[in-house]
Design brief:
It is a single chain. The chain is of the alpha+beta class. The chain has one domain: Alpha-Beta Plaits (2-Layer Sandwich), CATH 3.30.70.1060. 30% of the residues lie in helices and 36% in strands. The protein has two helices and four strands. It has a four-stranded antiparallel sheet with strand order 2-3-1-4. A hairpin with a 5-residue loop joins strand 2 and strand 3.
Length: 89
């Protein structure tokens, strides 16, 4: 059975840099690589546009923390919460 880990992050939208759209492009490229590698199964944007929920495959929390810290948006993240999940169906 595959283990999943959910990472929920919120960004601080009050002081975004002028090049924010460029940062988003780099962010999208990074998560696309994770998806292609099979370690990211889902990415959900929050309706408020101030964060996202990522569902990782078969990685532990330390690895998820390492991956999240490598994201271009990481310096703007106000909070990140990690929750291990056990899929039932």
């Amino acid at each position: 059975m595959t283990n999943h880990l959910m990472a929920i992050f919120t960004i601080n939208t009050d002081q975004l840099p002028d090049n924010f759209q460029e940062i988003i492009k780099h962010e999208q490229a990074a998560v696309a690589q994770w998806k292609e590698a099979g370690i990211l199964t889902h990415l959900f944007l929050r309706p408020t546009r101030n964060g996202a929920v990522l569902i990782f495959n078969d990685i532990d929390e330390p690895k998820a923390r390492e991956l999240m810290a490598s994201l271009p948006l990481y310096p703007f993240m106000q909070s990140v919460e990690y929750l291990p999940l056990m899929k039932q169906f």
